[in-house]
Protein backbone atom coordinates (compact mmCIF):
# COMPACT_ATOMS: atom_id res chain seq x y z
CA UNK A 1 0.00 0.00 0.00
CA UNK A 2 1.35 3.38 -1.07
CA UNK A 3 0.30 6.75 0.15
CA UNK A 4 0.64 9.71 -2.31
CA UNK A 5 -0.17 13.39 -2.18
CA UNK A 6 -2.02 14.58 -5.26
CA UNK A 7 -0.91 18.07 -6.33
CA UNK A 8 -4.15 19.85 -5.43
CA UNK A 9 -4.76 17.98 -2.24
CA UNK A 10 -1.24 18.48 -1.02
CA UNK A 11 -1.92 22.14 -0.43
CA UNK A 12 -4.60 21.12 2.03
CA UNK A 13 -2.49 18.30 3.53
CA UNK A 14 -5.12 15.66 2.72
CA UNK A 15 -3.87 12.09 2.13
CA UNK A 16 -5.26 9.64 -0.50
CA UNK A 17 -4.65 5.90 0.14
CA UNK A 18 -4.60 3.34 -2.77
CA UNK A 19 -4.75 -0.39 -2.03
CA UNK A 20 -2.57 -2.24 -4.64
CA UNK A 21 -3.74 -5.66 -3.41
CA UNK A 22 -7.05 -5.22 -5.24
CA UNK A 23 -7.44 -6.14 -8.91
CA UNK A 24 -6.57 -3.38 -11.34
CA UNK A 25 -10.20 -2.77 -12.47
CA UNK A 26 -11.38 -2.54 -8.88
CA UNK A 27 -8.47 -0.32 -7.94
CA UNK A 28 -9.42 2.13 -10.70
CA UNK A 29 -13.06 2.07 -9.64
CA UNK A 30 -12.09 2.55 -6.00
CA UNK A 31 -9.83 5.44 -6.95
CA UNK A 32 -12.62 7.14 -8.90
CA UNK A 33 -15.03 6.75 -5.99
CA UNK A 34 -12.44 8.18 -3.65
CA UNK A 35 -11.93 11.23 -5.93
CA UNK A 36 -15.69 11.83 -6.22
CA UNK A 37 -16.00 11.60 -2.41
CA UNK A 38 -13.14 14.09 -2.03
CA UNK A 39 -14.77 16.54 -4.45
CA UNK A 40 -18.08 16.25 -2.57
CA UNK A 41 -16.31 16.93 0.73
CA UNK A 42 -14.55 19.93 -0.72
CA UNK A 43 -17.87 21.42 -1.80
CA UNK A 44 -19.29 21.05 1.69
CA UNK A 45 -16.10 22.11 3.43
CA UNK A 46 -15.72 25.63 4.87
CA UNK A 47 -12.16 25.66 3.49
CA UNK A 48 -11.97 26.55 -0.22
CA UNK A 49 -9.06 26.26 -2.58
CA UNK A 50 -6.92 29.45 -2.60
CA UNK A 51 -5.70 30.53 -6.02
CA UNK A 52 -3.47 33.60 -6.49
CA UNK A 53 -5.38 36.67 -7.73
CA UNK A 54 -4.80 37.28 -11.40
CA UNK A 55 -3.55 40.69 -12.62
CA UNK A 56 -3.35 42.07 -16.14
CA UNK A 57 0.06 41.76 -17.68
CA UNK A 58 1.72 45.23 -17.55
CA UNK A 59 2.68 46.80 -20.87
CA UNK A 60 6.39 47.01 -21.37
CA UNK A 61 6.45 50.84 -21.80
CA UNK A 62 7.37 53.71 -19.50
CA UNK A 63 4.26 55.31 -18.05
CA UNK A 64 4.53 59.14 -18.51
CA UNK A 65 1.88 61.71 -17.70
CA UNK A 66 0.96 63.66 -20.80
CA UNK A 67 1.06 67.48 -20.62
CA UNK A 68 -2.32 68.97 -19.88
CA UNK A 69 -1.65 72.41 -21.38
CA UNK A 70 0.34 73.98 -24.18
CA UNK A 71 2.53 75.70 -21.62
CA UNK A 72 3.49 72.36 -20.06
CA UNK A 73 4.23 70.87 -23.47
CA UNK A 74 6.24 73.95 -24.44
CA UNK A 75 8.22 73.81 -21.22
CA UNK A 76 9.05 70.14 -21.76
CA UNK A 77 10.24 70.72 -25.34
CA UNK A 78 12.41 73.69 -24.34
CA UNK A 79 14.02 71.68 -21.53
CA UNK A 80 14.91 68.97 -24.07
CA UNK A 81 16.32 71.61 -26.44
CA UNK A 82 18.39 73.15 -23.64
CA UNK A 83 19.84 69.72 -22.88
CA UNK A 84 20.54 69.14 -26.57
CA UNK A 85 22.25 72.50 -26.98
CA UNK A 86 24.38 71.75 -23.90
CA UNK A 87 25.51 68.53 -25.58
CA UNK A 88 26.40 70.38 -28.79
CA UNK A 89 23.48 69.04 -30.86
CA UNK A 90 22.45 71.30 -33.77
CA UNK A 91 18.94 72.79 -33.58
CA UNK A 92 17.29 73.83 -36.84
CA UNK A 93 15.81 77.23 -37.66
CA UNK A 94 12.35 75.75 -38.23
CA UNK A 95 12.26 74.47 -34.64
CA UNK A 96 13.08 77.91 -33.24
CA UNK A 97 10.52 79.57 -35.51
CA UNK A 98 7.78 77.13 -34.54
CA UNK A 99 8.45 77.51 -30.83
CA UNK A 100 8.45 81.31 -31.05
CA UNK A 101 5.07 81.12 -32.78
CA UNK A 102 3.77 78.98 -29.92
CA UNK A 103 5.16 81.39 -27.32
CA UNK A 104 3.39 84.25 -29.07
CA UNK A 105 0.16 82.26 -29.20
CA UNK A 106 0.17 81.49 -25.47
CA UNK A 107 1.82 84.85 -24.63
CA UNK A 108 4.64 83.28 -22.64
CA UNK A 109 7.51 85.74 -22.54
CA UNK A 110 9.42 83.54 -20.06
CA UNK A 111 9.68 80.66 -22.52
CA UNK A 112 10.44 83.11 -25.34
CA UNK A 113 13.45 84.47 -23.45
CA UNK A 114 14.75 80.91 -22.94
CA UNK A 115 14.43 80.24 -26.68
CA UNK A 116 16.18 83.54 -27.44
CA UNK A 117 19.15 82.38 -25.36
CA UNK A 118 19.39 79.20 -27.44
CA UNK A 119 19.48 81.00 -30.81
CA UNK A 120 23.02 81.81 -32.02
CA UNK A 121 23.34 85.62 -32.42
CA UNK A 122 24.72 85.34 -35.96
CA UNK A 123 21.80 83.18 -37.01
CA UNK A 124 19.35 85.66 -35.52
CA UNK A 125 20.91 88.62 -37.33
CA UNK A 126 20.99 86.84 -40.68
CA UNK A 127 17.50 85.34 -40.62
CA UNK A 128 14.79 87.96 -41.11
CA UNK A 129 11.89 85.61 -40.41
CA UNK A 130 13.30 84.38 -37.12
CA UNK A 131 14.16 87.90 -35.95
CA UNK A 132 10.69 89.14 -36.88
CA UNK A 133 8.99 86.39 -34.89
CA UNK A 134 11.12 87.10 -31.82
CA UNK A 135 10.50 90.84 -32.19
CA UNK A 136 6.74 90.27 -32.43
CA UNK A 137 6.79 88.14 -29.25
CA UNK A 138 8.62 90.83 -27.26
CA UNK A 139 6.43 93.64 -28.62
CA UNK A 140 3.11 91.84 -28.10
CA UNK A 141 4.05 91.09 -24.49
CA UNK A 142 4.95 94.71 -23.78
CA UNK A 143 8.73 94.30 -23.86
CA UNK A 144 9.28 97.01 -26.48
CA UNK A 145 12.83 97.80 -25.39
CA UNK A 146 13.88 94.20 -26.07
CA UNK A 147 11.88 94.27 -29.31
CA UNK A 148 13.64 97.48 -30.35
CA UNK A 149 17.01 95.88 -29.59
CA UNK A 150 16.22 92.88 -31.82
CA UNK A 151 14.98 95.29 -34.51
CA UNK A 152 18.17 97.38 -34.38
CA UNK A 153 20.32 94.26 -34.80
CA UNK A 154 18.54 93.10 -37.97
CA UNK A 155 21.19 93.31 -40.68
CA UNK A 156 19.03 93.90 -43.79
CA UNK A 157 16.23 95.99 -42.34
CA UNK A 158 15.72 98.09 -45.48
CA UNK A 159 14.96 95.04 -47.56
CA UNK A 160 12.59 93.31 -45.18
CA UNK A 161 8.81 93.36 -45.30
CA UNK A 162 6.61 95.56 -43.15
CA UNK A 163 5.98 92.71 -40.68
CA UNK A 164 8.76 93.60 -38.26
CA UNK A 165 7.96 97.31 -38.48
CA UNK A 166 4.28 96.66 -37.84
CA UNK A 167 5.04 94.52 -34.78
CA UNK A 168 7.20 97.21 -33.21
CA UNK A 169 4.76 100.02 -34.06
CA UNK A 170 1.96 97.95 -32.52
CA UNK A 171 4.02 97.34 -29.38
CA UNK A 172 4.60 101.07 -28.86
CA UNK A 173 0.96 101.89 -29.60
CA UNK A 174 -0.44 99.34 -27.15
CA UNK A 175 1.73 100.80 -24.39
CA UNK A 176 0.50 104.32 -25.18
CA UNK A 177 3.91 105.42 -26.50
CA UNK A 178 2.30 107.06 -29.50
CA UNK A 179 5.16 109.42 -30.34
CA UNK A 180 7.58 106.48 -30.62
CA UNK A 181 5.12 104.61 -32.84
CA UNK A 182 4.79 107.60 -35.19
CA UNK A 183 8.55 108.16 -35.24
CA UNK A 184 8.98 104.56 -36.37
CA UNK A 185 6.37 105.07 -39.10
CA UNK A 186 8.24 108.09 -40.46
CA UNK A 187 11.52 106.16 -40.24
CA UNK A 188 9.84 103.40 -42.22
CA UNK A 189 9.04 105.87 -44.97
CA UNK A 190 12.57 107.28 -44.97
CA UNK A 191 14.11 103.82 -45.37
CA UNK A 192 11.82 103.02 -48.28
CA UNK A 193 9.83 100.24 -46.63
CA UNK A 194 6.29 100.30 -48.00
CA UNK A 195 3.50 100.11 -45.40
CA UNK A 196 0.75 97.53 -45.83
CA UNK A 197 -2.86 97.25 -44.69
CA UNK A 198 -1.71 96.22 -41.21
CA UNK A 199 0.54 99.26 -40.77
CA UNK A 200 -2.09 101.97 -41.09
CA UNK A 201 -4.57 100.91 -38.38
CA UNK A 202 -1.74 100.96 -35.83
CA UNK A 203 -0.40 104.31 -37.01
CA UNK A 204 -3.88 105.88 -37.06
CA UNK A 205 -4.45 104.67 -33.51
CA UNK A 206 -1.28 106.50 -32.51
CA UNK A 207 -2.54 109.65 -34.24
CA UNK A 208 -5.78 109.44 -32.27
CA UNK A 209 -3.78 108.83 -29.10
CA UNK A 210 -1.92 112.14 -29.38
CA UNK A 211 -4.92 113.92 -30.93
CA UNK A 212 -2.98 115.15 -33.97
CA UNK A 213 -5.42 115.81 -36.80
CA UNK A 214 -2.60 117.08 -39.05
CA UNK A 215 -0.58 113.87 -38.87
CA UNK A 216 -3.78 111.85 -39.14
CA UNK A 217 -4.77 113.60 -42.36
CA UNK A 218 -1.26 113.08 -43.79
CA UNK A 219 -1.53 109.35 -43.02
CA UNK A 220 -5.00 109.35 -44.63
CA UNK A 221 -3.48 110.76 -47.84
CA UNK A 222 -0.81 108.05 -47.73
CA UNK A 223 -3.59 105.44 -47.40
CA UNK A 224 -5.23 106.77 -50.56
CA UNK A 225 -1.95 106.85 -52.53
CA UNK A 226 -1.23 103.19 -51.71
CA UNK A 227 -4.76 102.08 -52.61
CA UNK A 228 -6.01 101.03 -49.16
CA UNK A 229 -8.94 103.46 -49.05
CA UNK A 230 -11.41 100.59 -49.49
CA UNK A 231 -9.95 98.34 -46.79
CA UNK A 232 -12.40 97.87 -43.93
CA UNK A 233 -9.77 97.73 -41.18
CA UNK A 234 -8.16 100.95 -42.38
CA UNK A 235 -11.52 102.75 -42.73
CA UNK A 236 -12.54 101.74 -39.20
CA UNK A 237 -9.25 103.11 -37.91
CA UNK A 238 -9.84 106.37 -39.81
CA UNK A 239 -13.28 106.78 -38.21
CA UNK A 240 -11.77 106.27 -34.77
CA UNK A 241 -8.85 108.61 -35.48
CA UNK A 242 -10.98 111.51 -36.71
CA UNK A 243 -13.41 111.11 -33.82
CA UNK A 244 -10.60 111.17 -31.24
CA UNK A 245 -8.91 114.11 -32.95
CA UNK A 246 -12.05 116.23 -32.69
CA UNK A 247 -13.41 116.11 -36.25
CA UNK A 248 -16.61 114.11 -35.86
CA UNK A 249 -17.88 115.38 -39.24
CA UNK A 250 -14.99 113.74 -41.11
CA UNK A 251 -15.40 110.65 -38.96
CA UNK A 252 -19.02 110.37 -40.09
CA UNK A 253 -18.02 111.03 -43.70
CA UNK A 254 -15.56 108.12 -43.65
CA UNK A 255 -18.13 105.95 -41.86
CA UNK A 256 -20.65 106.58 -44.65
CA UNK A 257 -18.03 105.46 -47.21
CA UNK A 258 -17.66 102.01 -45.65
CA UNK A 259 -19.42 99.60 -47.99
CA UNK A 260 -19.62 96.64 -45.64
CA UNK A 261 -19.77 97.79 -42.02
CA UNK A 262 -18.88 95.49 -39.16
CA UNK A 263 -19.38 95.88 -35.40
CA UNK A 264 -16.10 97.82 -35.14
CA UNK A 265 -17.38 100.40 -37.64
CA UNK A 266 -20.60 100.97 -35.70
CA UNK A 267 -18.96 101.06 -32.29
CA UNK A 268 -16.30 103.50 -33.50
CA UNK A 269 -18.80 106.11 -34.71
CA UNK A 270 -21.06 105.49 -31.70
CA UNK A 271 -18.28 106.11 -29.16
CA UNK A 272 -17.13 109.04 -31.28
CA UNK A 273 -20.50 110.79 -30.91
CA UNK A 274 -20.51 110.05 -27.18
CA UNK A 275 -16.98 111.43 -26.86
CA UNK A 276 -18.22 114.71 -28.33
CA UNK A 277 -21.28 114.80 -26.09
CA UNK A 278 -23.67 114.23 -28.99
CA UNK A 279 -26.01 111.90 -27.16
CA UNK A 280 -28.93 112.23 -29.59
CA UNK A 281 -26.79 111.29 -32.60
CA UNK A 282 -25.31 108.41 -30.61
CA UNK A 283 -28.76 107.08 -29.79
CA UNK A 284 -29.73 107.26 -33.48
CA UNK A 285 -26.67 105.18 -34.35
CA UNK A 286 -27.51 102.81 -31.49
CA UNK A 287 -31.01 102.31 -32.93
CA UNK A 288 -29.68 101.78 -36.47
CA UNK A 289 -27.19 99.21 -35.22
CA UNK A 290 -29.96 97.18 -33.66
CA UNK A 291 -32.07 97.45 -36.82
CA UNK A 292 -29.22 96.11 -38.95
CA UNK A 293 -28.54 93.23 -36.59
CA UNK A 294 -25.42 94.50 -34.86
CA UNK A 295 -24.87 94.69 -31.13
CA UNK A 296 -22.98 97.55 -29.48
CA UNK A 297 -20.00 96.39 -27.45
CA UNK A 298 -19.67 96.82 -23.71
CA UNK A 299 -17.57 100.00 -24.07
CA UNK A 300 -20.24 101.74 -26.14
CA UNK A 301 -23.11 100.60 -23.89
CA UNK A 302 -21.23 101.74 -20.79
CA UNK A 303 -20.58 105.13 -22.38
CA UNK A 304 -24.26 105.56 -23.23
CA UNK A 305 -25.39 104.58 -19.72
CA UNK A 306 -22.98 107.01 -18.10
CA UNK A 307 -24.21 109.90 -20.27
CA UNK A 308 -27.98 109.47 -20.57
CA UNK A 309 -29.88 112.26 -18.83
CA UNK A 310 -33.21 110.45 -18.81
CA UNK A 311 -33.74 107.79 -16.14
CA UNK A 312 -36.52 106.26 -18.24
CA UNK A 313 -34.18 105.82 -21.20
CA UNK A 314 -31.49 104.42 -18.91
CA UNK A 315 -33.93 101.83 -17.53
CA UNK A 316 -34.86 100.82 -21.08
CA UNK A 317 -31.22 100.31 -22.01
CA UNK A 318 -30.75 98.35 -18.77
CA UNK A 319 -33.60 96.08 -19.83
CA UNK A 320 -31.97 95.61 -23.23
CA UNK A 321 -28.68 94.57 -21.62
CA UNK A 322 -30.55 91.98 -19.53
CA UNK A 323 -32.17 90.51 -22.65
CA UNK A 324 -28.79 90.42 -24.39
CA UNK A 325 -27.08 88.76 -21.43
CA UNK A 326 -24.74 91.75 -21.00
CA UNK A 327 -26.03 93.01 -17.66
CA UNK A 328 -23.17 91.61 -15.60
CA UNK A 329 -20.40 92.77 -17.86
CA UNK A 330 -18.17 94.61 -15.39
CA UNK A 331 -18.07 97.99 -17.15
CA UNK A 332 -21.83 97.92 -17.87
CA UNK A 333 -22.73 97.02 -14.27
CA UNK A 334 -20.46 99.82 -13.00
CA UNK A 335 -22.18 102.29 -15.35
CA UNK A 336 -25.58 101.15 -14.10
CA UNK A 337 -24.54 101.98 -10.53
CA UNK A 338 -23.52 105.47 -11.68
CA UNK A 339 -26.74 105.88 -13.68
CA UNK A 340 -29.05 105.05 -10.79
CA UNK A 341 -27.08 106.95 -8.15
CA UNK A 342 -26.96 110.03 -10.39
CA UNK A 343 -30.75 110.01 -10.51
CA UNK A 344 -31.13 109.43 -6.78
CA UNK A 345 -32.13 105.77 -7.13
CA UNK A 346 -29.79 104.49 -4.42
CA UNK A 347 -31.85 101.35 -3.78
CA UNK A 348 -31.48 100.31 -7.42
CA UNK A 349 -27.78 101.18 -7.39
CA UNK A 350 -27.25 98.99 -4.32
CA UNK A 351 -29.30 96.19 -5.89
CA UNK A 352 -27.06 96.14 -8.96
CA UNK A 353 -23.94 96.28 -6.80
CA UNK A 354 -25.08 93.48 -4.46
CA UNK A 355 -25.95 91.17 -7.37
CA UNK A 356 -22.68 91.66 -9.29
CA UNK A 357 -20.89 88.31 -9.68
CA UNK A 358 -17.53 90.13 -9.62
CA UNK A 359 -16.39 93.60 -8.60
CA UNK A 360 -13.34 95.73 -9.24
CA UNK A 361 -12.13 98.96 -7.66
CA UNK A 362 -14.38 100.95 -10.02
CA UNK A 363 -17.41 99.08 -8.65
CA UNK A 364 -16.49 99.94 -5.07
CA UNK A 365 -15.68 103.56 -5.97
CA UNK A 366 -19.05 103.88 -7.72
CA UNK A 367 -21.07 102.62 -4.73
CA UNK A 368 -19.02 104.74 -2.29
CA UNK A 369 -19.54 107.81 -4.46
CA UNK A 370 -23.25 107.02 -4.65
CA UNK A 371 -23.38 107.50 -0.85
CA UNK A 372 -21.30 110.69 -0.87
CA UNK A 373 -23.79 112.43 1.42
CA UNK A 374 -24.45 109.44 3.64
CA UNK A 375 -22.39 107.80 6.43
CA UNK A 376 -23.03 104.48 4.63
CA UNK A 377 -20.08 105.44 2.41
CA UNK A 378 -17.80 104.57 5.34
CA UNK A 379 -19.61 101.25 5.79
CA UNK A 380 -19.05 100.49 2.09
CA UNK A 381 -15.35 101.22 2.53
CA UNK A 382 -15.17 98.82 5.46
CA UNK A 383 -16.84 96.15 3.31
CA UNK A 384 -14.35 96.92 0.55
CA UNK A 385 -11.43 96.28 2.89
CA UNK A 386 -13.00 93.07 4.21
CA UNK A 387 -13.42 91.86 0.61
CA UNK A 388 -9.68 92.34 0.04
CA UNK A 389 -10.13 95.01 -2.64
CA UNK A 390 -7.38 97.64 -2.83
CA UNK A 391 -8.61 101.26 -2.78
CA UNK A 392 -7.06 103.89 -5.03
CA UNK A 393 -6.83 107.68 -5.06
CA UNK A 394 -10.41 108.04 -6.30
CA UNK A 395 -11.67 105.95 -3.38
CA UNK A 396 -10.18 108.33 -0.83
CA UNK A 397 -11.31 111.45 -2.69
CA UNK A 398 -14.89 110.20 -2.38
CA UNK A 399 -14.47 109.22 1.27
CA UNK A 400 -12.78 112.46 2.33
CA UNK A 401 -15.40 114.46 0.44
CA UNK A 402 -18.12 112.58 2.34
CA UNK A 403 -16.42 113.32 5.67
CA UNK A 404 -16.14 117.01 4.75
CA UNK A 405 -19.81 117.19 3.79
CA UNK A 406 -20.92 115.45 7.01
CA UNK A 407 -18.42 117.18 9.30
CA UNK A 408 -16.71 113.91 10.33
CA UNK A 409 -13.32 115.38 11.21
CA UNK A 410 -11.97 112.40 13.18
CA UNK A 411 -13.01 109.93 10.49
CA UNK A 412 -11.47 112.12 7.81
CA UNK A 413 -8.15 112.36 9.65
CA UNK A 414 -8.13 108.59 10.19
CA UNK A 415 -8.82 107.92 6.49
CA UNK A 416 -6.07 110.33 5.42
CA UNK A 417 -3.65 108.47 7.68
CA UNK A 418 -4.79 105.04 6.40
CA UNK A 419 -4.37 106.20 2.82
CA UNK A 420 -0.71 107.10 3.31
CA UNK A 421 0.44 104.66 5.99
CA UNK A 422 -1.52 101.50 5.21
CA UNK A 423 -1.95 101.69 1.43
CA UNK A 424 1.10 103.77 0.56
CA UNK A 425 -0.81 106.27 -1.58
CA UNK A 426 0.76 109.70 -1.91
CA UNK A 427 -1.83 112.45 -1.44
CA UNK A 428 -2.76 114.36 -4.59
CA UNK A 429 -4.23 117.84 -4.94
CA UNK A 430 -7.81 116.61 -4.56
CA UNK A 431 -7.02 114.89 -1.26
CA UNK A 432 -5.57 118.07 0.20
CA UNK A 433 -8.55 120.03 -1.11
CA UNK A 434 -10.90 117.65 0.70
CA UNK A 435 -8.94 117.94 3.95
CA UNK A 436 -8.92 121.75 3.76
CA UNK A 437 -12.65 121.64 3.09
CA UNK A 438 -13.11 119.20 6.02
CA UNK A 439 -11.29 121.46 8.49
CA UNK A 440 -12.78 124.63 7.05
CA UNK A 441 -16.41 123.50 7.24
CA UNK A 442 -15.83 122.41 10.84
CA UNK A 443 -14.51 125.88 11.72
CA UNK A 444 -10.91 124.70 12.07
CA UNK A 445 -9.57 127.36 9.71
CA UNK A 446 -6.09 127.47 11.26
CA UNK A 447 -5.72 123.69 10.84
CA UNK A 448 -6.84 124.03 7.22
CA UNK A 449 -4.24 126.76 6.61
CA UNK A 450 -1.56 124.66 8.33
CA UNK A 451 -2.42 121.72 6.07
CA UNK A 452 -1.57 123.89 3.05
CA UNK A 453 1.57 125.64 4.20
CA UNK A 454 3.15 122.90 6.33
CA UNK A 455 1.98 119.46 5.15
CA UNK A 456 1.56 119.74 1.38
CA UNK A 457 4.52 118.39 -0.58
CA UNK A 458 3.83 120.64 -3.59
CA UNK A 459 2.37 124.04 -4.35
CA UNK A 460 -1.34 124.26 -3.64
CA UNK A 461 -3.60 124.92 -6.62
CA UNK A 462 -6.63 127.12 -7.01
CA UNK A 463 -8.98 124.37 -5.80
CA UNK A 464 -7.22 124.09 -2.43
CA UNK A 465 -6.90 127.86 -1.86
CA UNK A 466 -10.52 128.30 -2.99
CA UNK A 467 -11.71 125.81 -0.36
CA UNK A 468 -9.78 127.75 2.28
CA UNK A 469 -11.19 131.10 1.17
CA UNK A 470 -14.72 129.71 1.28
CA UNK A 471 -14.10 128.44 4.84
CA UNK A 472 -12.84 131.89 5.85
CA UNK A 473 -16.03 133.37 4.42
CA UNK A 474 -18.17 130.94 6.45
CA UNK A 475 -16.36 131.73 9.69
CA UNK A 476 -15.24 135.34 9.02
CA UNK A 477 -11.52 134.74 9.38
CA UNK A 478 -10.06 137.91 7.88
CA UNK A 479 -6.34 137.20 8.30
CA UNK A 480 -6.32 133.76 6.67
CA UNK A 481 -8.91 134.92 4.12
CA UNK A 482 -6.60 137.70 2.94
CA UNK A 483 -3.71 135.24 2.52
CA UNK A 484 -5.90 132.84 0.53
CA UNK A 485 -7.34 135.63 -1.64
CA UNK A 486 -3.87 136.98 -2.43
CA UNK A 487 -2.78 133.58 -3.78
CA UNK A 488 -6.01 133.17 -5.74
CA UNK A 489 -5.67 136.57 -7.40
CA UNK A 490 -2.37 135.32 -8.86
CA UNK A 491 -3.66 131.87 -9.82
CA UNK A 492 -7.06 132.97 -11.17
CA UNK A 493 -6.87 136.71 -11.95
CA UNK A 494 -10.17 136.67 -13.87
CA UNK A 495 -12.27 134.67 -11.41
CA UNK A 496 -14.64 137.23 -9.91
CA UNK A 497 -15.93 134.66 -7.40
CA UNK A 498 -12.71 135.07 -5.36
CA UNK A 499 -13.15 138.85 -5.18
CA UNK A 500 -16.76 138.47 -4.11
CA UNK A 501 -15.84 136.07 -1.28
CA UNK A 502 -13.17 138.45 0.03
CA UNK A 503 -15.64 141.35 -0.12
CA UNK A 504 -18.12 139.29 1.88
CA UNK A 505 -15.45 138.50 4.51
CA UNK A 506 -14.70 142.23 4.89
CA UNK A 507 -18.40 143.06 4.98
CA UNK A 508 -19.09 140.50 7.75
CA UNK A 509 -16.16 141.91 9.73
CA UNK A 510 -17.44 145.47 9.30
CA UNK A 511 -14.42 146.59 7.27
CA UNK A 512 -16.27 148.62 4.66
CA UNK A 513 -13.22 150.49 3.37
CA UNK A 514 -11.45 147.25 2.51
CA UNK A 515 -14.64 145.99 0.94
CA UNK A 516 -14.78 149.07 -1.31
CA UNK A 517 -11.10 148.67 -2.18
CA UNK A 518 -11.69 145.13 -3.43
CA UNK A 519 -14.69 146.32 -5.45
CA UNK A 520 -12.49 148.95 -7.19
CA UNK A 521 -9.96 146.20 -7.98
CA UNK A 522 -12.72 144.32 -9.74
CA UNK A 523 -13.64 147.39 -11.77
CA UNK A 524 -10.03 147.95 -12.76
CA UNK A 525 -9.78 144.36 -14.02
CA UNK A 526 -13.06 144.61 -15.92
CA UNK A 527 -14.80 142.12 -13.65
CA UNK A 528 -17.51 144.38 -12.20
CA UNK A 529 -20.81 143.55 -13.85
Automatic annotation (TrEMBL):
Keywords: Repeat. GO terms for molecular function: RNA binding. The keyword Repeat applies. GO terms for biological process: RNA modification. It comes from the Eukaryota. PPR repeats lie at residues 161-195, 262-296, 329-363, 495-529. The keyword Repeat applies. Pfam families: E_motif, PPR, PPR_2. Residues 27-52 are annotated as: Disordered. Residues 35-46 have a biased composition (Low complexity). InterPro entries: E_motif, PPR_At4g14850-like_plant, PPR_rpt, TPR-like_helical_dom_sf. PANTHER family: PENTATRICOPEPTIDE REPEAT-CONTAINING PROTEIN, UMP-CMP KINASE. This is Tetratricopeptide-like helical domain containing protein. It comes from Trema orientale (Charcoal tree). The lineage of its organism: Eukaryota, Viridiplantae, Streptophyta, Embryophyta, Tracheophyta.
Amino acid sequence: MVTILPPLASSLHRRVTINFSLPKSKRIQKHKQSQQKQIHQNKNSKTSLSYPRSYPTPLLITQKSYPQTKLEALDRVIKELEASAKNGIYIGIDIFASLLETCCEVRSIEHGVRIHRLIPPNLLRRNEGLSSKLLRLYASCGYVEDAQQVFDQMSKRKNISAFAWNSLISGYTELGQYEDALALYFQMEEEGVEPDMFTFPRVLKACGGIGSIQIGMAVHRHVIRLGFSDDGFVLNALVDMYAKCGDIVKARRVFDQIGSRDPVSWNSILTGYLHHGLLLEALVIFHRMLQEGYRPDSVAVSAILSRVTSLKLGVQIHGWTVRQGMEWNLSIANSLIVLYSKHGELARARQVFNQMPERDVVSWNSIISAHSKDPKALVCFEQMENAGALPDNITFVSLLSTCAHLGLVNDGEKLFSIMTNKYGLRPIMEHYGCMVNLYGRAGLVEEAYSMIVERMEFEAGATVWGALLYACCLHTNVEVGEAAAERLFDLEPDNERNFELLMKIYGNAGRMEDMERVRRMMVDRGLDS
